[in-house]
Amino acid sequence: MDLHWTSTVYAILAFVILYLLLNKFAFGPLFSIMEKRRQLVLEQMSMAETARKQASAQMEEQKQALQEARKEAYEIIEKARVTSTKNADDIVQAAKNEANRLKEEAVRDIESEKDKAIASLRGQVAGMSVMIASKIIEKQIDEKSQEQLVDQYLKEVGSK
């Protein structure tokens, strides 16, 4: 039995020496490599998470920028619509004002021409009235003269 006990002690001593040697030359570098690998994986996971967060933030910024661009485009379109409506109203109002001005000018021209025509007619009527009156007076004078001539002639004839 002695033999078994000593061989067990030798086996344990050999195992401890092997373990120490493996720990110093194999397990240490192996665990060191595994720790470095674990750190690398953690860094990559951290970087991936950071990249995902940045991508998410950029996507959110792009969504906001797109929303802002849509809002600005809508505002520009709305301003253009309001401006075009205002311009159209201004043009219509200007056309109405011009039409009213032309109408008033035409009415003034018509009144002016009417006044000129009335004045001309009055002048012509006055001239014609004078002419008619002179003709009437000439006729009356002629009739009177003629009566006087007739009377004078009759007197002369009667005296003879």
TrEMBL record:
Regions crossing the membrane: 12-33
Membrane topology, record value: Single-pass membrane protein
Compartments where located: Cell membrane; Endomembrane system
Regions annotated as coiled coil: 45-116
InterPro entries noted in UniProt: ATP_synth_B-like_membr_sf (IPR028987), ATP_synth_b/b'su_bac/chlpt (IPR002146), ATP_synth_F0_bsu_bac (IPR005864), ATP_synthase_B_chain (IPR050059)
UniProt entry keywords in alphabetical sequence: ATP synthesis, Cell membrane, CF(0), Coiled coil, Hydrogen ion transport, Ion transport, Membrane, Transmembrane, Transmembrane helix, Transport
Matching Pfam families: ATP-synt_B
Record PANTHER family: ATP SYNTHASE SUBUNIT B, ATP SYNTHASE SUBUNIT B', CHLOROPLASTIC
Known function: F(1)F(0) ATP synthase produces ATP from ADP in the presence of a proton or sodium gradient. F-type ATPases consist of two structural domains, F(1) containing the extramembraneous catalytic core and F(0) containing the membrane proton channel, linked together by a central stalk and a peripheral stalk. During catalysis, ATP synthesis in the catalytic domain of F(1) is coupled via a rotary mechanism of the central stalk subunits to proton translocation. Component of the F(0) channel, it forms part of the peripheral stalk, linking F(1) to F(0).
Family to which the UniProt record says this protein belongs: Belongs to the ATPase B chain family.
Complex and partners: F-type ATPases have 2 components, F(1) - the catalytic core - and F(0) - the membrane proton channel. F(1) has five subunits: alpha(3), beta(3), gamma(1), delta(1), epsilon(1). F(0) has three main subunits: a(1), b(2) and c(10-14). The alpha and beta chains form an alternating ring which encloses part of the gamma chain. F(1) is attached to F(0) by a central stalk formed by the gamma and epsilon chains, while a peripheral stalk is formed by the delta and b chains.
Protein name per UniProt: ATP synthase subunit b
Organism: Paenibacillus xanthanilyticus
